[in-house]
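4.2 Preliminary Data

To establish feasibility before requesting continued support, the project team ran the inverse folding procedure on a target of 69 residues. The structure was first converted into the token representation described in Section 3, and no sequence information of any kind was made available to the design step. The complete token record follows.
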């Protein structure tokens, strides 16, 4: 999953607007690895990264159970 880090209009998805913080790609739309690389790098019309890979969310730490006395 990727997170939008700069506003852009996806010209390859019927001019869908992506705002900062949105998830890319939107639900129901699939993109190629090449497209992900294009938007995550500088080889796009804005010449700067527009998306970044979102780090997986870590599960909250579990508390250790106290030994029964």
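Position-by-position output of the design step:
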């Amino acid at each position: 999953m990727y997170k939008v880090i700069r506003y852009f209009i996806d010209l390859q998805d019927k001019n869908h607007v992506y705002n900062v913080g949105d998830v890319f790609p939107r639900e129901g739309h699939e993109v190629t690895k090449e497209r992900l690389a294009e938007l995550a790098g500088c080889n796009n019309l804005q010449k700067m990264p527009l998306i970044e890979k979102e780090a997986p969310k870590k599960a909250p730490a579990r508390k250790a159970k106290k030994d029964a006395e």
